[in-house]
Design a protein that fits this description.
By secondary structure, this protein is an alpha+beta fold. It folds into 3 domains: 108 residues, Phosphatidylinositol 3-kinase Catalytic Subunit, Chain A, domain 1 (Ubiquitin-like (UB roll), Roll), CATH 3.10.20.90; 55 residues, no CATH class; 98 residues, no CATH class. Helix content is 37%, strand content 26%. The protein has 12 helices and 13 strands. The strands form 3 sheets. The protein has a 6-stranded mixed beta sheet. Strands 9-10-13-12-11 form a 5-stranded antiparallel beta sheet. Strand 5 and strand 6 form a beta hairpin. Helix 6 crosses helix 8 and helix 7 crosses helix 8. It is globular.
């Protein structure tokens, strides 16, 4: 006897992801992202969606310095923060026939973070409001007249305090609280910061948020690497003035929409190195390169010479976005 078993395959849910970038955040009077550049993933299988894939797309393809916060806007126009794959799963739980186009935004590492609620708290906020506005009699039945009288015990200020108490604290607030402690002890660890938050305020802060807060404090103390990039033109001019004959080539790209400049590559060859190669080294040049593993990424390319004692001497070096023909020539 032959039995046929029919298996019902799970329905594939497709979403359209819209990546917004190249703009700026307007915080007052209402939080709003102002930008015109968009990039789309259309008909993407939601089961394959992950937090790391989205952040890598922003960094590797769209040219973001780094992703400090991943933000999504819902149908009401309100913004929520997504943290990790847990946030992605929460976001996908809201996908339906009306909400399948997901608008994504980021706050880069060189920007101030935006104060928005975490998307995992989206449903909890609704439950809290229902609890405040509902009252029951002793026998368990609902009484509309009692509800209105009990709500008078909560004025608008108290409701605001209750709502604020349930919101997740921002990285800016954490940085403000721990600034003096981190200045006194730069080796103060993120793990210790979370323990102190739990002990002092009974708040379980996310590890990545504490990490951003610590980075904000250190950048305020030592300066951000973005500020150093802004000094490159002055650095190049100083090299030419202090070392006559030195070759310095600095290449940047400019966005025609917002006039923002992005560092591409830089080439440096000191006059002393050129004369040393001409007068004392063998007529041999070796080319080499290595990847930069820091926050800014890129590659370091160099040309090396050799003297009669087989000692190596640096001739020129360059910082480039990637290794290809244009970066070598």
């Amino acid at each position: 006897m032959l039995f046929l078993v029919c298996l019902r395959l799970p329905k594939i849910v497709l979403v359209d992801l819209v990546f917004h970038y190249g703009g700026k955040w307007i915080r007052e009077p209402k939080l709003l992202y102002e930008g015109k550049l968009v990039y789309k993933w259309e008909g993407y299988d939601s089961d394959l969606l992950s937090f790391i894939d989205i952040t890598n797309e922003y960094i590797n393809l769209l040219g973001c310095v780094g992703v400090q916060q991943l933000i999504v806007s819902v149908l009401s126009g309100k913004y929520y923060e997504i943290e990790g794959d847990e946030g992605i799963r929460t976001l996908l739980s809201f996908v339906n026939d009306k909400f399948y186009v997901i608008n994504l935004f980021v706050v880069e590492d060189c920007e101030l973070d935006v104060d928005v609620e975490n998307i995992t708290k989206m449903l909890e906020t609704v439950v809290v409001i229902d609890d405040i506005s509902t009252d029951c009699t002793f026998d368990g039945s609902e009484n509309d007249s009692d509800t209105s009288s009990d709500n008078s015990d909560y004025n608008s200020e108290e409701l605001e305090v209750l709502a604020q108490a349930r919101r997740r604290v921002s990285a800016t607030t954490i940085a403000f609280y721990f600034k003096e402690k981190l200045q006194a002890n730069p080796k103060y660890k993120i793990k210790e910061m979370r323990v102190d938050m739990k002990t002092a305020f009974n708040i379980k802060a996310h590890f990545e948020k504490c990490k951003r807060a610590k980075r904000m404090i250190l950048e305020d103390m030592e300066g951000s690497f973005c500020d150093d990039y802004k000094k490159l033109i002055g650095y190049a001019n100083a090299l030419k003035e202090s070392n006559p004959g030195t070759d310095v080539v600095l290449k940047v790209s400019r966005n025609p929409l917002d006039e923002k400049r992005k560092f591409l590559r830089m080439y440096i060859c000191f006059e002393a190195f050129k004369n040393g190669f001409k007068n004392g080294l063998r007529p041999f040049i070796d080319l080499d390169g290595t990847f930069l593993k820091g926050k800014a990424k890129g590659q370091l390319l160099c040309a090396i010479g050799q003297d009669s004692m087989n000692h190596f001497h640096l001739i020129v070096w360059a910082i480039v976005d990637k290794e290809y023909k244009a970066s070598w020539v």
